[in-house]
Design brief:
By secondary structure, this protein is mainly α. It is 62% helix and 5% strand. The longest helix has 34 residues.
């Protein structure tokens, strides 16, 4: 008979002796040892990451290299036409290294440092208010050794990890407990309030992801309604403060827009704030016959790029508008994707992100514990929501704001953070998925998690 070899050192279980383990943990370990003695698969168990997530990740890497080079014409200098591609390639390589490292680490370790990571990122976010550097009209980054770090991007992922830990710890057969809902809502409001100075879009995105995680946890509709009401009141309060305090400008893709607004304010016009002005311009809309100025340049050039792409596009590298569209390589790169590959290519990219979410949902369905299900879906929702928000802004569905397209837009912090999210998803797919033929794996999975993270996944299939 063959035998399964399991690592002796697991999270929450001493390698020698069971004195510190709970009775339930000791029973699980005894059951696992009994199964080992009765036979199983020969050799050491070597799980692998989900091949579909790997495939999506590599597709996005290829698209990132092609489209960033196509959209970076305004950055290219005569001395080195490959400089933008090389810079982004370095961050993509670092991100890939993070993916390989994190996907080999058991996701159970992440829950132990969730609060520390979130609070640390909050500290960096607050630090930007004092020593941050201004980029495109907003003080949202810290410069370290010649590189800029954007804490808002880090905060979004660390908060998702902390929320997954809280919800996984408070999961019950009937849904998330009241304690878990209150803790989760408090964390979102706290970090959302810290994010609003760097852009209301980030705050709304964080609230949207947290609502999705609460829905996944089976929160009752009454509780969910209360959370929505609390979020809405907090969002209205933050928007009011943002309108009153003219010093707290949201990210502005066109720096001259702020000059124009200031000039009109000096003439006695009431200044309602950049974000409010953007909403008003979005509602008013634009026409191809409108004169192009500093206030509508991005929207107009983005529309021209998408129209030039047509159904099948003009081919990668043949973009006409990348030289005229401000920030074509970051906040508006999706318009260049459409110009290069057409409506078909734009839809294909959107479906690629949606398939990532669908695959994460399938993996979460197979998780026996609640925490990994929350973790993988939280990471997937964060990536996909951010991609959809970027696409909605570029196509004119949402007002203008600065939100990068995951992995494809230029931005080192965003690439590294999203790579960490992919690594976490792959870790969950390696260690948390169980099936009828993997009972020993299921038992070992329970040993890997701390005692307070053993809540069952209410959406898991019956094994």
């Amino acid at each position: 008979m063959s035998k399964i070899v399991i690592r002796e050192t697991v999270v929450g279980v001493p390698a020698e002796g069971n004195a510190a383990a709970s009775p339930s943990t000791r029973r699980l370990k005894a059951s696992l040892n009994a199964k080992n003695e009765s036979g199983g698969t020969k050799g050491t168990w070597r799980p692998k990451g989900d091949p579909y997530i790997w495939g999506i990740y590599w597709f996005l890497m290829v698209i990132a290299v092609i489209e960033l080079f196509s959209a970076s014409s305004t950055e290219i200098t005569g001395s080195n036409v490959y400089a933008p591609l090389i810079r982004h390639g370095i961050f993509l390589a670092l991100g890939t290294a993070l993916v390989f490292a994190i996907q080999r680490m058991h996701y159970g370790y992440i829950s132990r440092f969730a609060a520390i990571l979130a609070i640390g990122s909050l500290g960096l976010l607050i630090l930007t208010s004092f020593v941050g550097v201004e980029i495109n009209g907003a003080q949202r980054a810290i410069r370290v050794a010649g590189f800029t770090i954007q804490p808002p991007e880090i905060v979004k992922l660390t908060v998702i990890i902390w929320l997954a830990t809280i919800l996984g710890r408070n999961q019950q057969p009937g849904g998330v407990s009241n304690k878990g809902v209150i803790q989760a809502a408090f964390i979102v409001v706290l970090f959302g309030a810290a994010l609003w100075r760097n852009g209301l879009t980030n705050t709304i995105l964080l609230m949207g992801v947290s609502m999705s995680m609460l829905l996944i946890g089976g929160v009752q509709w009454k509780k969910l309604g209360i959370v929505v009401a609390v979020y809405a009141l907090c969002a209205l309060a933050l928007m009011g403060l943002k309108s009153i305090n003219s010093g707290n400008e949201e990210f502005d893709s066109i720096a001259t827009e702020q000059v124009a607004v200031t000039a009109t304010a000096d003439k006695g016009v009431d200044r309602s704030g950049t974000w409010t002005a953007r909403v008003k311009r979005h509602i008013a809309g634009v026409s191809p016959d409108d004169p192009i100025d500093d206030l509508n340049r991005q929207v107009m050039m983005s529309n021209f790029a998408q129209a030039n792409g047509g159904m099948f596009g003009c081919g990668p590298g043949n973009s006409r508008e990348s030289a005229r569209l401000p920030l074509a390589f970051s906040d508006y790169i999706y318009s260049i994707v459409i110009e290069d590959t057409g409506f078909i290519g734009g839809c294909a990219l959107m479906l690629l992100y949606l398939f990532l979410l669908a695959r994460a949902g399938r993996i979460a369905y197979k998780c026996s514990r609640a925490f990994p299900a929350f973790l993988i879906l939280g990471c997937a929702v964060l990536i996909v929501f951010q991609a959809l928000v970027h696409m909605a802004i570029v196509t004119g569905v949402f007002p203008v704001s600065g939100q990068p397209l995951p992995f494809i837009s230029k931005g080192g912090t965003s690439v590294l953070v999203m790579s960490c999210a992919i690594g976490i998803m792959l870790s969950v797919s390696r260690y948390a998925v169980t099936s009828r033929k993997e009972k020993a794996k299921n038992l070992n999975e329970q040993l890997q998690l701390a005692d307070d993270m053993q809540a069952a996944n209410i959406t898991s299939e019956t094994l």
